Each structure stands twice: as structure tokens, then as C-alpha cells.
Amino acid sequence: MEVLRVKILAPALALLLAFGPQIAPAQEVRQAEVPLDELVWVARPLVIFATTENDPRFRRQMELLQTRPEELALRDVQIFVDTDPDANGEMRRSLRPRGFMVVLIDKDGRVALRRPEPLRTDELVRFIDRTPLRQDEIRGN
């Protein structure tokens, strides 16, 4: 499996961290390139792409993620952002976002969801809960 990495940029991180303690630890963004293959069977990466951290959709998505962060943590969601298309990192090349894009990668490493608009936390939680992997987790398998 190819190692995918996402670069977290300081302005996007600052915006995310500006929301303060309302974001649960599982929703913290790491300031490094993260090999997503290390997250297979461990976490559900939620990658938020934008062409700039000033994109209103990006700002709205960060706002929406403040609601029910404990629900995201319960489902092992880890949030990553990429607001620098010029860097053209492996994640951006692999997932090929066009402008703003929200991508959920399931625990098996496959892309489970792509959205070109902000996604409410309750929608994300409902979507995750309907996936076969989450159903197995709920049943204790």
C-alpha cells in the first residue's frame, strides 16, 4: 500500500486550534506529515481540502466540527486539513480534490465519502454508523 501523507499547514492549524478546548483530543491536528497507512484499522481520517484557509466553506466546516466532538472521538475520527494546493502533496495527488472537498477514509483505508460542501457532524456520524466496519464495531466484532 502506498504511504499517503498530508501536510498540515500552520494557518489551518491555527484556525482549528482557535476553537480551543471544544475540540476533543481525537480531533486535534498534528503538525507533521502523517503516513495514513499507520491509521489503517486504527482511525477514520477526515481530510478537509481547501485552496486557502480563508475559504468560507473551510471555515464553516471547522465550525461544524465543533458540535459533538465526543461523537467523532467515539468513532475514531481524526481530522486533517490541507489548504495548500501548490504543495501538491501525496494526499492531494491521490484524492484529487477540486477546490473545497471533505473526504472520509474508513478504517480499512478506502475512501468512504467525498463531499464538495461542508458536512454537519450529525450527518457524518450517521454515515459512519451505517458503514459495515462501524456495524461490526458496534456488535463487538
TrEMBL record:
Keywords in UniProt for this one?
Signal
Q: Which domain of life is it from?
A: Bacteria
Signal sequence coordinates: 1-26
Question: In this record, what's one Pfam family?
Answer: DUF4174
Per the database record, which ranges form the DUF4174 domain?
35-137
What's the name of the protein?
DUF4174 domain-containing protein
